[in-house]
Design a protein that fits this description.
Layout: E1 3-8, H1 19-26, E2 31-37, H2 46-51, E3 59-60, H3 63-69, E4 76-79, H4 93-101, E5 105-108, H5 118-127, E6 131-133, E7 157-162, H6 169-182, E8 187-190, H7 194-198, H8 215-230, E9 234-238, H9 252-256, E10 262-267, H10 287-297, E11 300-306, H11 313-327, E12 331-332, H12 334-337, H13 340-350
Parallel strand pairs: 1-2, 1-4, 2-3, 4-5, 5-6, 7-9, 7-10, 8-9, 10-11, 11-12
């Protein structure tokens, strides 16, 4: 635990841009989240607003109102949004500067580094607080090329891929880890984004902050290190973007370089075009063609998980039945139904019916 933290947003209810805040509210082992600062939704419980579950994380309209209500100092203020292009919204700068003046360090996962904004950097120096831009690339001396050591990893690897960005791949991966652990497996997760790091992930990389030449090696290194140190029964890998998203194709690395034998594929039936590219009408490929492509890469799609944003219950169930009939594989609503059935399917496929409990892998 790094310390106590507040999360800064400018619209906590925004399912696209506030996904970092949503992940931190759902849970983090790195920070103790004390509050969300959001001028649009004050007075609400962040957990209840997110998914109906009370988490005792209040939302305040301003930093001042939070500080007036809380005794003692908070350690960190986390930028809880992920904007298009990773640009820091200047309307949030007064709140960031106010936090610095109160001795609060800033954590940001945006592409635009707050430590490079002169006014913020100078203020941080004056008040002796940290500006932690976690998307700054590691020094090349700390990065790894692909070596082939992935072949030493004997446990199943499951990549949680998607047909677009901002679908909830990380959340589904975490649900799979929780469900697998609940079924007696030693399940681990490889994080690949800034929110996974903020939530306390031990093994992984920040994919889009890694020099391209080192991506495959960093994926391999994270998986191999996780396997050697934890001896897991299964490793779940958080996906990024989509295999055929023209603005940032991603996913093949987890299958080709990370040796993922299985895929759970997340899809949003209400979306027709890739997010942010509706005007140019960049269409999301069909689920059937995506499953075929994954098979061509050498992996098996275990199940499809549906993001039901924009659908009512009847529509969601209709898509579930339609896709199951079309694909011949299970289709799951992870937030509504849970993902136990996917873990049970994985155990059956790999012969893992009686997991070893002495720390070894039985897969």
């Amino acid at each position: 635990m790094d310390g106590t933290a507040i999360v800064l947003t400018n619209g906590f209810g925004d399912q696209s841009s506030a996904k970092t805040a949503h992940g931190l509210v759902r849970g983090t082992d790195r920070y103790q989240i004390k509050a969300v600062i959001d001028p649009l939704n004050p007075g609400k419980d962040a957990g209840e607003m997110l998914d109906g579950k009370q988490r005792a994380i209040p939302i305040f309209d301003t930093l001042t109102s939070f500080l007036e209500s809380q005794p003692g100092k908070v350690d960190f203020a986390i930028i809880g949004i992920a904007t298009k292009g990773g640009v820091f919204p200047r309307e949030m700068q007064p709140t960031v500067e106010a936090a610095i003046r109160h001795g609060i360090s800033i954590v940001s996962g945006l592409h635009e580094y707050l430590g490079d904004i002169p006014e913020i950097a100078q203020l941080a120096r004056e008040h002796r607080v940290q500006i932690i831009d976690i998307r700054r690339p590691k020094p090349k001396s700390e990065l790894h090329f692909w070596t082939g050591n992935i072949r030493k990893v004997t446990c199943p690897r499951v990549a949680v891929l998607g047909t677009d960005c901002n679908l909830g791949k990380r959340t589904t991966a975490q649900l799979l880890v929780q469900a697998a652990n609940g079924q007696g497996l030693n399940a681990q997760m490889i994080y690949t984004g800034q929110t996974g790091w903020m939530q306390g992930g031990k093994y992984g990389l920040i994919f889009d902050a890694t020099y391209n030449d080192f991506v495959s090696g960093e994926v391999e290194h994270a998986i191999v290190r996780c396997f050697e140190e934890t001896q897991p029964d299964v490793i779940f890998i958080e996906g990024q973007s989509a295999l055929r998203n023209p603005s940032g194709p991603c996913g093949s690395e987890f299958i080709v370089s990370g040796g993922a034998q299985y895929v759970v594929l997340q899809h949003a039936p209400a979306r027709r075009y890739f997010q942010g590219f509706e005007e140019v009408q960049a269409p999301i490929p069909s689920l059937k063609s995506e499953v075929t492509l994954i098979r061509m890469y050498g992996a098996q799609t275990l199940a499809v998980t549906l993001n039901t944003t924009g659908l009512d219950k009847r529509e969601a169930l209709r898509y579930k039945i339609q896709f199951e009939d079309e694909l011949g594989i299970p289709v799951v609503l992870p937030l509504q139904e849970g993902v136990d059935s996917i873990v049970h399917q994985l155990k059956t496929l790999t012969g893992q019916r009686n997991p070893v409990v002495d720390g070894g892998s039985a897969v």
